[in-house]
Each structure stands twice: as C-alpha cells, then as structure tokens.
Design a protein that fits this description.
Elements: E1 6-11, E2 14-16, E3 19-21, H1 28-36, E4 40-45, E5 51-56, E6 59-65, H2 79-90
Parallel strand pairs: 1-4
Antiparallel strand pairs: 1-5, 2-3, 5-6
Length: 92
C-alpha cells in the first residue's frame, strides 16, 4: 500500500459507565499510529455495537472489538494498533 492511503475507521457505539454511544477515546491511539505513518484517517459511525473496521480502497483490511484498543495514548505500545497499521500497509 502506498503511503498516504485514505483509511476509513468505521466504529460502532459501545458501553461505558452504563451509557451506550459513539466515542472516539479508544480510537485516538489508532488514529495517531496511522497518521504517524502518513495515512489519512476518516471516521465513520456505524450501527454495529463494539465494532471497529478499517477500510482501504473499499475493502475491510482489519476489524476488532473497540474495547480491545487501549484508551487514549499514541498507539505505540498497543499491540492491536500495531496489527492494524500492518494490515493497512499490506492492503492492495
């Protein structure tokens, strides 16, 4: 995958403190990791609860449960973020 790919982060709502809604706190590290590698991130809300999907060129290249991502941070120490960035960079 060339640098500066456009990556769509599709994220559904999840429960925190008894309230289910869309939040981006757990996506911050993933966004930071992708941006640091030169990719452009676009957030898109979905209805699928607890789901995160990374879409490149119309193809889902990575998905996980949003609660697997670490809260906040830069994504450097989060193994799920590293796996997601690798999946984006191996996409065609």
């Amino acid at each position: 995958m060339p640098k500066n790919a456009r990556v769509t982060l599709c994220c559904g709502p999840y429960e925190s403190s008894g309230v289910v809604e869309h939040r981006t706190f757990r996506l911050q590290g993933l966004q930071a990791a992708l941006t640091a590698r030169g990719h452009q991130c676009v957030l898109e809300e979905t209805r699928e609860r607890n789901k995160v999907e990374l879409v490149v060129n119309g193809e889902v290249v990575f998905n996980c449960d949003v609660k697997q991502l670490e809260f906040g941070g830069d994504g450097k120490l989060d193994p799920v973020c590293r796996e997601a960035v690798a999946a984006v960079e191996e996409a065609h």
